[in-house]
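Need the bound structure for adenosine-5'-triphosphate, inputs here:
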Amino acid sequence: MIEVRGLTKRYGEVLAVDDLSFTVRPGEVTGFLGPNGAGKSTTMRMLLGLDAPTSGTATVGGLPAAAQPVPLRAVGALLDAGALLPGRSAFHHLLALAASNGFPRRRVDAVLEEVGLSGVARRAAGTYSLGMKQRLGIAAALLGDPPALVLDEPLNGLDPEGIVWIRRLMRRMAAEGRAVMMSSHLMSEVELTVDHLVVIGRGRLIADTGRAEFIASCAERTEREVVVRTPRAAPFGGRLAAAGGAVRPDGEDGLIVTGLGAARIGALAAADGVELHELALRQTSLEEAFMELTRDSVEYSARKVPARKASAGTDPTGKETVR
Ligand SMILES: Nc1ncnc2c1ncn2[C@@H]1O[C@H](COP(=O)(O)OP(=O)(O)OP(=O)(O)O)[C@@H](O)[C@H]1O
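Answer from helper R.:
Posting the output first, comments after.
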């Protein structure tokens, strides 16, 4: 179990992590999401003992990283897959890690097999593709057979095959009872993989929720839009507005309508003899809902939005909590 309580990190003027509390449970993959600069890497570095908190605690199995007798046995981490000695082979990289932690050599063979690098293990890591470096980083994380895994943007830059492979591996690691935490700044990367979501923005907690509940709350929050295409868009748009719909044009022959269901729009068209070329429901995607949730937390936004403070468990629109 990974537990973060009141975790805060200040770099001079920058409050990178602000009173953050959440739990990553065994048997689950928890997605740790937030836009660039939200504080994900800083939180993970504190969890791993690579950075000291300004205040608060981050523990794995009840102990902070510095107090773990053998850190690699407590938590495996992938932070920067590129941080390798380029001339050293995968085998020797892992062997050095195993030796310095007192792990037997057979663990090296086992993790190389696990990540599919056995065939290229003697090649210099500098010649590896990004996907192979990610696999090597994951092999190192698995070396101590730890009950918790912390992976920072593990899908970054991977091809579709690599993405599917990491997803399956994380699901399997969770099924074995490990607590798995993966960060991402894209909802689409994690929505197929995670059981639980912890969303942060500007260092603060925005949502701490099950994946299914997050999807349900997004569906509730976002109004369904109906796309209508007709050669008589302008007059029919007026008719829909008079019937209580909020209507905006979409090209010459299109209308986007909220506040009226597709059935009602179809009935109005039939009653008025309006020819329809399209009548379709458009559901906001999870990615759009996530962007909406974190919009005010984006460090460098193309749009100027007023800064609003989110409190733990409350979404920044202030409409509803998704905890
Ligand atoms: N060593 C540091 N010194 C000063 N500021 C820092 C340092 N490390 C991080 N920050 C700042 O803290 C904030 C959080 O950064 P962090 O890298 O944790 O975010 P992130 O969510 O991991 O972002 P990304 O997805 O871009 O990696 C940013 O404003 C960043 O500029």
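Comments: The chain is about 35% helix and 25% strand. Residues 27 and 275 are 54 Å apart (CA to CA).
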